[in-house]
## 1
Amino acid sequence: MIRKAVLPVAGLGTRFLPASKAIPKEMLTLVDKPVIQHVVEEAIAAGITEIILVTHGAKKAIEDHFDVHYELENELELRGKTALLKQLRSILPEGIRVISIRQGRALGLGHAILCAREVIGNEPFAVLLPDVLVDNFGLINSLGQPKTDLACMSQRFTKTGLTQILVDAVPQENVDQYGIVVLKEANDKKATNLAAGESKPIKAMIEKPTIDQAPSNLAIVGRYVLPPRIFELLAKTKVGAGNEIQLTDALDTLLQESGAEAYRMQGQTYDCGSKLGYLHATLIHALRHPEVKEDFRALINNLPEA
Ligand code: G1P
């Protein structure tokens, strides 16, 4: 069972300025819940009990969101607002710990993960990139319980001991925005030979290749289950694409050493680090929100022509 997860949240969110000047981009809300809370809930649903935020001094609001707000709770209690109080307390369910570590310098995703080394210690762990929202709404297992992609990856790691990397096919013209993997058995560039929910061995991976160089269109989506050996490899990894220490480069070494598998997503992702992805996620969550979904649907059905 994987118990710990690293969430790198130190990025300054320049794609979301001016909104992200004083508010961390991870605190932008989908209706009434910050994006980061959705990601933490995804981790908890996969059995994670220790969340490690690799963060920056300008992003204290994230730590505050997962802390107890005693005055607010007291006030709600006095006013008898029990439903709100319950909601507030459920942000961090009992038994779940949030720990934060500072990433003083912006040296890349690989460096951010390395910052969590002492807290993770010698055990496998998950990584969730908080820009990406993985939506497993409606997916259930044979016992009728919700089943998430991260939970499936964690189970697969526990069974095989092999690194699991969440991937999905992206349009060929977008391959330069992602880490790209090529499967051992790949025989064409379309990478259709990996079914949703299936894991297969990776032959190689490359961070943000040019469109011509890309060995496939199978992109790393932002969820990983990794062994602690990755820390030793990250410590030796030289700067790569974008002049940053890249997790993908250390993973490429790891896979030559001990193998790694690509797990293909069953759900759907929204890139909440981009304006359109964020709007898409907002739309979907508003259409599901128990309080506003009906009125919101009526509202979008009656939008005037722009
Ligand atoms: C990171 C990873 C990349 C991955 C992407 C997914 O890149 O380095 O391999 O495909 O996340 O969102 P970033 O988007 O942080 O530049």
## 2
Amino acid sequence: MYKTLKEVTETASRLNMTVGAFNMHNLEMLPDMIRGAKEVGAPIIIQTSIDTAKYIGYEVIVAVVKSLAETHMVDVALHLDHARDVDAIKEAIAAGYSSIMFDGSRLPFKENIEKTKLVVEYAHARGVSVEGELGTIGGTEEGISVAEDDKVYTRPEDAVLFVEETGVDALAVAIGTNHGQFKSKTEVNVPLLKEIHKVVDVPLVIHGGTGVKEEDYPELINNGIRKFNVGTELLVNWTQEAKQTFGETAVNKSLRYNVIPANQKVKEIVKHKMNLFLNRHQPITMG
Ligand code: 13P
């Protein structure tokens, strides 16, 4: 079924798991992402950048995601990732996206609160969920690189005020992750996440999931991460697989021979991550 971010993260909180939020980079890979979720038996968030949405078309993406969610009977939320442009947010909502992220993290704190609040009012009036961001996530965000020294970690006291004032449905936290990190892994600041989780009760979001060690997943999930973004790992693997098949296949062979293996690779990764996101080996609490 077609769901909002709020609905799927509520399920995740109840089950102490996290929902995989996977960036789709083209339409080809989308059916296998949703089939992967079906096979794992968990909800999924499909997210697009503004540029991907423009390339494919907002309405086309909404129609295909809704159709796949219904055909496969999977809970799917469709989310606009890292939108700083309010017109793009309005376009996504008008087309039928069920969730959007307003990324005001580069704005001064007060302005981030004010603008996020306006976006929340607009989106909630139309039944759409909103993710906000506080602090800066490292790596590259939409082509703008964030230097290590310019990284600002989320401060728990700011998070409390931000959530109270804006009414966001989920909060992206800056705790040491980096977008686009696929050659190495990062050291996540778990103590900081714990502090934020203690004082803020909205679902928390990990960005730059490709660079997070899988052994860190349980601790992140047990401390409130309810949306876990993975993009680059899918992109890199799809491209590597497609490069190989395109290199080996005759030019007059159906394109299926080139893209099916790449889509399959994406599906395998989605399933692998989603199985870990179920957090089945939770610590047994005594008493
Ligand atoms: P990666 O591409 O590093 O996995 O990050 C995805 C993300 O956080 C999208 O906002």
